[in-house]
């Protein structure tokens, strides 16, 4: 080839290599030893992409808990940890921690639901398109005809002087409620625009179960839930699991209904439009729970099985005891939908083979570092996140060391291959005493901290760090912001909105061989450095005084 044709190509290749090296460079950070900086710099987007490719492959069958693909994924991750030289921190000297689960699959064509008004014809509901439900008890059949009590948002929050259950008994009844929580711009009232745990559907099921309800019906509205009906349907169309012996998994019908179906129900009950009722329920003093002149009649048939899945837990010994740092990411997804036509494997590439691949690469970088970290570091890849954070809940309740010894959990969940990030999402970090260090390190990495674009969605309560926070451990998730090199924030926002609309919890969430995985490596480097700095601090990271997780932290420290 003539030199004149070769030279431009060489120049372009050299320029691309220099650009990659610049963006792969880990800046000097006070408190980060040169060897640790070198280890962070070794984090490689190609290795992360290779891990994600395998974990999201059809071979692993969507990594549904308790399936062949689940076991393959757990064994693969454990093998990676062992190859790196990490020590097992699971059960009986292994890398695996058994998580006992109960799986329930509603048999759609044999399950019937109907609203039965005191007067007028019953309203039959089409399963899947109008209602979805699970019998949490694990019984193969359930039949009931129970009164429906409308309890607004279904929240009892004394600190906000709010009790939707005031003056009403729901024992043996169906609690009808709205997803999310009362709207607010006052940070002293349900944290303003930011969703609290009271707005999560998991809380609503738990609270109704504590009060003896036989079932719960959540009214879905896309803007309140922050996702469409398809996400709800897909999550319920396949098996749904619960922790065995969970005292709050007692509902015979843990159900959702479509917005338009709620409209029919309210009309039959003689109430106003569903949107008017939702608006009224969110105004202090304007709502009182009421038993409707409508009953829920149901026949539910379920396939159930008791099984074990596993968390994968590894340890790297540090130079001294204390200030343990934990890295986490869930490896499960939704498995296979046997009733779906066409592609029925929920590969879960972004959600969350990406976070798991990042976790593996961070573990490699720590393990192959020339020096030990200041204190012990644990790596846990948890199961059954998509079932309601069950693997991390079990891990939080069965930690390998006391919670008070863990200074910080850094979690990864759903990173998209969109190129070099210029911003980062750190929702929850501001609630901890580690926030100033996080801010300064972000600036050094040239990463703008993106505010939560949708605080009402309650993202903090929807990933595994929440399970660690509930037992007092300071915890947050590192994710991409909306600004990427070569694009404006509008482009980044559009990418995320498109993913949620077309791929989130869909079989189309597959590995993208054309994706730019430098987003993954940069966020991994950032998390490596933050974890090292948190471990090196002379004092433990704490929750800010008055935070909702400050009390569990103090309780763990008193033990």
Topology:
Layout: H1 3-24, H2 34-41, H3 45-55, H4 68-84, E1 87-88, E2 96-106, E3 112-117, E4 123-125, E5 131-134, E6 141-150, E7 156-157, E8 162-163, E9 174-178, H5 201-210, E10 215-219, H6 222-225, H7 229-237, E11 240-243, E12 253-257, H8 259-268, H9 274-281, E13 290-316, E14 320-330, E15 335-336, E16 345-346, H10 349-367, E17 375-382, H11 390-397, E18 406-412, E19 423-425, H12 435-444, E20 448-449, H13 465-470, E21 475-480, H14 489-502, H15 518-536, H16 550-558
Parallel strand pairs: 6-9, 9-10, 10-12, 14-17, 14-18, 18-21, 19-20
Antiparallel strand pairs: 1-13, 2-11, 2-13, 3-4, 3-13, 5-12, 6-13, 7-8, 13-17, 15-16, 19-21
Could you provide a short overview of the structure?
Strand 7 and strand 8 form a beta hairpin.
Plain-language structure description:
The chain has 559 residues and is of the alpha/beta class. The chain folds into two domains: 41-101 and 305-558, Zn peptidases (Aminopeptidase), CATH 3.40.630; 104-304, Glucose Oxidase, domain 1. Helices cover 33% and strands 23% of the residues. The chain contains 16 helices and 21 strands. Helix 10 packs across helix 15 (518-536). The longest helix is centred in the N-terminal third of the chain and has 22 residues, at 3-24.
What's the structural domain tally? Answer: 2
Radius of gyration from CA coordinates: 24 Å
Biggest sheet details: 17 strands, mixed
Number of beta-strand segments: 21
DSSP strand (E) fraction?
15-25%
The CATH class of the largest domain is identified as Alpha Beta
Broad structural category: alpha/beta
Q: Mind telling me the CATH superfamily name of the largest domain?
A: Zn peptidases
Quaternary status of these chains?
A: single chain
CATH architecture of the largest domain: 3-Layer(aba) Sandwich
- Average of per-residue pLDDT values: 92
Helix content percent band? 25-40%
Low-confidence spans: pLDDT under 50, at least 5 residues? Answer: 1-22
Distance between the termini: 74 Å
CATH topology of the largest domain: Aminopeptidase
Please tell me what the overall shape is.
Answer: globular
Count of helical regions:
16
């Amino acid at each position: 080839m003539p030199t004149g044709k070769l030279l431009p190509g060489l120049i372009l290749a050299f320029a691309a290599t220099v650009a990659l090296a610049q963006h792969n460079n880990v800046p000097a950070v006070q408190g980060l030893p040169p060897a640790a900086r070198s280890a962070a710099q070794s984090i490689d987007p190609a290795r992360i992409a290779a891990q994600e490719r395998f974990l999201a492959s059809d071979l692993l069958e969507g990594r549904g808990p308790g399936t062949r693909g689940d076991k393959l994924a757990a064994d693969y991750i454990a093998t990676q940890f062992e190859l790196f030289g990490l020590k097992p921190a699971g059960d009986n000297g292994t890398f695996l921690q058994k998580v006992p689960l109960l799986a329930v699959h509603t048999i759609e064509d044999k399950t019937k639901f109907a609203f039965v008004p005191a007067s007028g014809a019953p309203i039959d509901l089409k399963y899947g398109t109008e209602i979805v439900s699970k019998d949490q008890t694990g019984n193969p059949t359930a039949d009931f005809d129970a009164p429906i009590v409308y309890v607004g948002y279904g929240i009892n929050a004394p600190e906000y002087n709010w009790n939707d259950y005031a003056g009403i008994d729901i024992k043996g009844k169906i609690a009808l409620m709205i997803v999310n929580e009362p709207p607010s711009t006052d940070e002293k009232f349900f944290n303003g625009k930011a969703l609290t745990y009271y707005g999560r559907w998991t809380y609503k099921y738990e609270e109704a179960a504590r009060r003896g309800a036989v079932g719960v019906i959540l009214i879905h509205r896309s803007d309140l839930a922050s996702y469409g009906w398809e996400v709800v349907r897909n999550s319920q169309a396949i098996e749904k699991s619960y922790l065995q012996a969970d005292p709050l998994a007692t509902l015979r019908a843990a159900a959702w209904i479509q917005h338009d179906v709620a409209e029919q129900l309210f009309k039959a009950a003689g109430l106003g439009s569903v949107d008017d009722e939702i608006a009224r329920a969110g105004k202090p003093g304007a709502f009182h729970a009421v038993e409707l002149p409508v009953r829920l009649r149901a026949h539910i048939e379920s396939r159930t099985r008791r099984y074990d899945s596993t968390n994968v837990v590894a340890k790297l010994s540090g130079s001294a005891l204390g200030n343990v740092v934990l890295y986490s990411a869930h490896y499960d997804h939704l498995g296979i939908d046997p009733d779906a036509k066409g592609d029925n494997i929920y590969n879960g590439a972004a959600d969350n083979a990406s976070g798991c691949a990042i976790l593996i690469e961070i573990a490699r970088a720590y393990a192959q570092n020339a020096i030990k970290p200041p204190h012990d570091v644990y790596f846990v890849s948890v199961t059954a996140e998509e079932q309601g954070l069950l693997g991390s809940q079990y891990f939080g309740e069965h930690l390998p060391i006391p919670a008070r010894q863990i200074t910080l959990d850094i979690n990864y969940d759903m990173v998209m291959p969109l190129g070099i990030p210029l911003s980062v999402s750190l929702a929850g970090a501001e609630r901890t005493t580690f926030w100033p260090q996080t801010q300064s390190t972000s600036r050094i990495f040239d990463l703008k901290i993106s505010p939560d674009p949708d605080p009402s969605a309650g993202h903090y309560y929807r990933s595994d760090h929440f399970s660690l926070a509930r037992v007092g451990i300071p915890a947050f998730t590192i994710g991409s912001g909306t600004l990427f090199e070569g694009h404006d924030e509008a482009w980044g926002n559009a990418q995320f909105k498109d993913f949620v609309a077309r791929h989130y919890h869909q079989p189309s969430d597959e590995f993208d061989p054309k994706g730019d995985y430098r987003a993954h490596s940069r966020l991994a480097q950032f998390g490596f450095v933050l974890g090292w700095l948190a471990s090196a601090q002379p004092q433990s990271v704490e929750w800010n005084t008055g935070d909702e997780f400050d009390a569990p932290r103090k309780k763990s420290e008193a033990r």
